[in-house]
Amino acid sequence: MLIVNDVSKIYRTKQRLGWFKSEWQENIAVNNLSFKVEPGQIVGLLGINGAGKTTTIKMCSTLLEPSSGTIFVDGMDIVKNDKKVKSIVNMIAGGERMLYWKLTAKENLRYFGSLYGLKEAELDHRITSLLREVGLDIKSNIPVEQFSKGMKQRLQIARGLINNPKYLFLDEPTLGLDASIAKHLRNYVKELAKEKGKAIILTSHYMKEVEELCDEVLIIDKGSLVMQDKPERLTNLFFKENTLKITVSEIPDSLHTKLNNEISQNKGTWQIQSTDDDEYDLIIKSEKDMTNSIVSLLAYHNLRILNIVSEKPSLEDVILLMSERTSA
Q1: d(C-alpha 17, C-alpha 239), whole Å
Q2: How far is the C-alpha of 243 from the C-alpha of 285, rounded, in Å?
Q3: Where is the ABC transporter domain (predicted)?
Q4: Residues 214, 186: contact at Cβ < 8 Å?
Q5: pTM of the model
Q6: Judging by DSSP bridges, how do beta strands 269-274 and 280-286 pair with one another?
Q7: Could you tell me the domains of the chain?
Q8: What are phi and psi of 91, to 5 degrees?
């Protein structure tokens, strides 16, 4: 289990006030943060830019030392037992960092694997298996500098799994990947957690990805935990209404009463907006999904339906709302 207990990270910088005077200023990146992650669990760490997500992940993966508080991995303090902890954790970051561009894909993995003391036979097997898993087996002897952005990110994923970590920290892992590769990675992450029992912490700007993968979500703002729950419960907690927008060629006045009766019965509200194309948007807000009943009503009166959009609140809406509340 990963246990983060009252952890803070403070950066101190020297600010010059004049020719002969200066003072130290503190920037609190993470502030008394506490949470737990069980084996087999995927936890999303969310917040707007500057919330402290990446700093938290770097501390959990031993890349940064906390200013205060404790982090335990399998009962080991990450500061006092950093070498042992390093052998069972790893981090995958989005972008093109943490790779040696002059080396080939295979040479990169061999180098990083050697840092964990893997025996040659085991390392060879893991390199072959991981390169195949990320679709780079036929590119294994090509220098990384010749790779596309997506290929570099796939190699990042292989690098992060080279030591077969029990705890995996994913910082924007699908950044730069095309849709098919990103989907494959998401399925692989699910497998790592649910079938192999790995504990995973994920940060991502793709809220659909978080909603698909995460068992639980932590929302942090200015380094502090402001909300923790399952993704669907978070959205239901703050947003009760769904929005349905149906574009039609016309809505006769004679239909208004029937629309009002149908929508009011479901405790919804509605309005009609004209568009620049001489069309009309019927916008309905209600807790219940009214798509079928409203479409049936419009079709019964022979109205031509041009478009239907059903919008449900997302985690992104929750994060923006929480940020607005903490800033107020």
Answers
A1: 47
A2: 5
A3: 2-247
A4: no
A5: 0.77
A6: antiparallel
A7: 2-237 (3.40.50.300), 240-312 (3.30.70.120)
A8: -130, 135
